[in-house]
Design a protein that fits this description.
- By secondary structure, the chain is α+β, with helices and mostly antiparallel strands.
- It contains six helices and 15 strands.
- The protein has helices spanning about 1-15, 100-110, 110-115, 130-145, 150-165, 275-280; strands at about 20-30, 35-40, 50-55, 60-65, 85, 90-95, 175-180, 190-200, 205-210, 220-225, 225-240, 250-260, 265, 290-295, 305.
- The strands form two sheets. Strands 2, 3, 5, 7, 8, 9, 10, 11, 12, 13, 14 and 15 form a twelve-stranded mixed beta sheet that branches. Strands 4-1-6 form a three-stranded antiparallel beta sheet, with no helix packed on it.
- The protein is globular.
Amino acid sequence: MNALRLLLAALLVASSALAQRVALANVDVRGPCSGLTAQLELAGTGPTAIPLDVPDGSTQRVLLPLLLPPDLVADDLATLRAPSLAPDGGRASFAGWNQPSTLARWADVPSGLRARPRTAPPELRAAPSLVACALLVAAGCAVLALKRAAARVAIGVCAVLAGWAIAPQGDGRLATTVVWEFDAGVSRGLAWSNARDRISIPSEGLVHALADPPALPIGARIDGSTWTWRAEGARLWIAREADPAWLTRGELFYAWTRRAGGEWVALGGPDSPEPPGWLVTGLPMGVDVVLGLRFPGSEDAWPWVR
């Protein structure tokens, strides 16, 4: 039992170290300005850089995601010095933190939801098709049969380009995975989205952000009310507020339940697959759990429900 407690404590420390604490800052930008870099002058933070298009003589208020130290709490925001701002032309001034802050929203999330394990589906790697392999083998035989070096090079280059064109490039629809987290009897939930290298962030409802490994800085591009957070080589998670009423607005494609005894039962009949291992990893024992895969909504994603 003591060893288990030590392991859980170590996991909590590790997960907190991965947290990319993010708060939203209001910044007034006076044109002409084509970009802005902002950063808090504190340890454990990094810059946020975004492109802008503010015309000469006009002023635009920008809602900017800024990285915070990992141990910061909501009340500490008021004591921080204003972030340093480096506009590409024009002028920029800090206009205060957006309220309620993401730190306050995260602290208000029920502890059971905050403690849920953060997992991601295994990486999908496309295998070369049989047609591509056959094409490369045939091209190799043709190259060996030719005597002229120029012809060999030409056929080899054409075969490589053709094989690349017909090779599977992966399914872009699977780039982002969404998991809705709820607790019975709790009036609010979390919608976690995770992706590799980059992820879209809506400017409203943001609660938390994670990166594994920790990724600094934020490269953000604004498109209307959505940012794109780029961090090459990192797995990124974004948490938004979720309304349990969403569960009544659609049907589940698959569904499973696990009673306190530990056995999973498919609710869709004997032909239903097993629940994915990455979704059940780390779930607490001794409580009832319901998992499901919901039909896609307006965002054209297949959200998991847990």
